[in-house]
Each structure stands twice: as structure tokens, then as C-alpha cells.
Specification:
single chain; mainly alpha
């Protein structure tokens, strides 16, 4: 067994980021700013960012 990451899982972070951006209809950087300004406005967004 090697310590290499299987090719299939290399883009998991990218896929998750894309789904988050689609759900909240904004990029991650913008989402972080919005959550910083209003952390209680959307608990789901706050959880994703933190």
C-alpha cells in the first residue's frame, strides 16, 4: 500500500468548492466576506466557511 492519493480523489476539494459556490450563488472569497459581515444571517454558510 502506498501513501499516494488515488487519482480519483485529487479533485475532491474542487468538487466540494464548486458545489458550495453553486448552492450559495457566489464564490468562496465572497462567501467568506459575507459570513464575516453577518455570521448569524445564514448558519449553513457560516458552518461551511468556518
Amino acid at each position: 500500500m502506498s501513501g499516494d492519493i488515488p487519482h480519483d480523489t485529487e479533485d475532491v476539494g474542487g468538487v466540494l468548492t464548486e458545489r458550495i459556490e453553486t448552492r450559495f450563488e457566489m464564490g468562496m472569497n465572497q462567501l467568506k466576506v459575507v459570513v464575516a459581515l453577518e455570521p448569524t444571517a445564514n448558519p449553513d454558510a457560516t458552518e461551511v466557511v468556518n
